[in-house]
């Protein structure tokens, strides 16, 4: 290594050492001083889980997901008789055992120590201790805290990443919680029955795990369709004048347009007061004050009986995921897949009539390998072809995935492969 390279390496290492040193000191500090957060006891330079306190921590996270309000969590903790951690004070007297304050709960719910990490300044590091809370629960709580903070300031974030947060329950009354999964570098959002993210919850076959995009789109379409109903304004208002009907129709049309455009999630977060989902319908309750503001009418004029929307749906289960098709909405057909299946069938007929792969490749100006790949679509299981034609194929069943999949001669094997995408 020449002198320049050595100096560069020393410079780089020197820049990293203070950060690592600071982090190490931070990791050693709290445990070394015997200061452990609720749920842990200090042991040497790390924390060990205190089973009884860990149960309290899980209860606090669970209560926040259920209620969405720190004030409500405080009330529930008081009712349950749960108090803060007991610890020795500086003068040898015990401290703690008090009611949980708002600031205490806010700090607890945002402390990454509970997912096995340690915060140091603006960065978090992997800790040497065990996690108490799963990452799904942690992320759901953080997202809800952010959403509630924006709501408390009198606004909804423009992006509204999970607009149905704390609004929808399943047929058992279990609240749907936003979560996500990463697959090959891509982030997929879902709404999941809360019991599925509790310990052993994944074993509950009755729980919902539905694509967030599809549920949000279905909810937005249900509301937009109601806004476009000819008699909507007449039904919504108590004895409306002709000029009022026309004004409400214009405002309702504008709302419907927004629900189908870039403002969809922000509008959903505001206009939906609550709702539920079952195997055959989505039920939505509109927020009267928000709707009145959007339609520029007096909230006292609204007939509450017309704030409820029932959208009939069809569902398809693919593994653990549930797919939604709302009412008579157009099917989500993959036009490219349908085109390629038709192309494959035509090419296969040509091969049967005596044409060679080279002949087809030359005519279509593609490689022989590509012709061979596309021809595989001619042997796709009839059930999968029917699903594709109806727009009900698995989300990941694309042309590219099929032509690059392991060779499967049996239709049963194809269906099993597709179901696990």
Automatic annotation (TrEMBL):
Membrane spanning residue stretches: none
PROSITE patterns referenced in this protein's UniProt entry, alphabetically: RECOMBINASE_DNA_BIND
Annotated coiled-coil segments of the chain: none
GO MF annotation list: DNA binding; DNA strand exchange activity
Recombinase domain span: 37-151
Pfam families associated with the record: Recombinase
InterPro entries (UniProt xref): DNA_bind_recomb_sf (IPR038109), DNA_bind_recombinase_dom (IPR011109), SSR_resolvase (IPR050639)
Superkingdom assignment: Bacteria
Residue numbers spanned by region Disordered: 1-28
PANTHER family: DNA RECOMBINASE-RELATED, DNA-INVERTASE FROM LAMBDOID PROPHAGE
UniProt name for this protein: Recombinase domain-containing protein
Organism: Pikeienuella piscinae
């Amino acid at each position: 290594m020449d002198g320049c390279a050595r100096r560069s390496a020393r410079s780089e290492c020197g820049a990293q050492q203070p950060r690592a040193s600071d982090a190490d000191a931070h990791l050693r500090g709290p445990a070394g001083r015997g200061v452990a957060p609720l749920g842990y006891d200090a042991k040497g330079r790390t924390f060990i889980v205190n089973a009884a306190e860990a149960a309290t921590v899980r209860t606090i996270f669970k209560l926040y997901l259920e209620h969405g309000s720190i004030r409500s969590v405080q009330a529930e903790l008081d009712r349950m008789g749960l108090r803060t951690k007991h610890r020795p004070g500086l003068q040898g007297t015990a401290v703690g055992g008090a009611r949980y304050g708002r600031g205490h709960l806010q700090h607890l719910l945002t402390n990454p120590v509970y997912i096995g990490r340690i915060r140091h300044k603006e960065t978090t590091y992997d800790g040497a201790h065990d996690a108490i809370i799963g990452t799904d629960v942690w992320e759901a709580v953080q997202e809800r805290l952010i959403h509630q903070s924006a709501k408390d300031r009198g606004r909804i974030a423009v992006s509204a990443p999970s607009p149905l947060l704390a609004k929808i329950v399943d047929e058992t009354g279990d609240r749907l919680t936003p979560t996500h999964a990463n697959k090959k570098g891509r982030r997929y959002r879902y709404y999941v029955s809360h019991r599925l993210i509790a310990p052993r919850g994944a074993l509950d076959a009755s729980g919902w795990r539905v694509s967030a995009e599809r549920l949000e789109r279905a909810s937005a379409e249900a509301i937009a369709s109601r806004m476009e109903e000819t008699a909507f304004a007449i039904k919504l208002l108590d004895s409306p004048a002709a000029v009022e009907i026309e004004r409400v129709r214009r405002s309702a049309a504008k709302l419907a347009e927004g629900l189908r455009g870039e403002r969809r999630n922000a509008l959903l977060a505001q206009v939906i007061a609550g709702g539920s989902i079952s195997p055959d319908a989505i039920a939505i309750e509109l927020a009267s004050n928000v709707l009145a503001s959007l339609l520029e009418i007096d909230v006292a004029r609204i007939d509450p009986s017309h704030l409820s929307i029932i959208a009939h749906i069809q569902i398809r289960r693919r593994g653990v995921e549930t797919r939604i098709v709302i009412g008579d909405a157009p099917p989500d057909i993959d036009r490219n897949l349908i085109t390629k299946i038709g192309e494959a069938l035509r090419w296969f007929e040509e091969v049967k009539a005596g044409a060679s792969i080279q002949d087809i490749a030359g005519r279509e100006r593609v490689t022989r390998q590509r012709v061979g790949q596309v021809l595989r679509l001619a042997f796709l299981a009839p059930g999968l072809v029917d699903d594709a034609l109806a727009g009900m194929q698995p989300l990941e069943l694309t042309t590219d995935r099929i032509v690059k999949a392991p060779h499967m001669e049996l239709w049963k094997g194809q269906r099993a492969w597709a179901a696990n995408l």
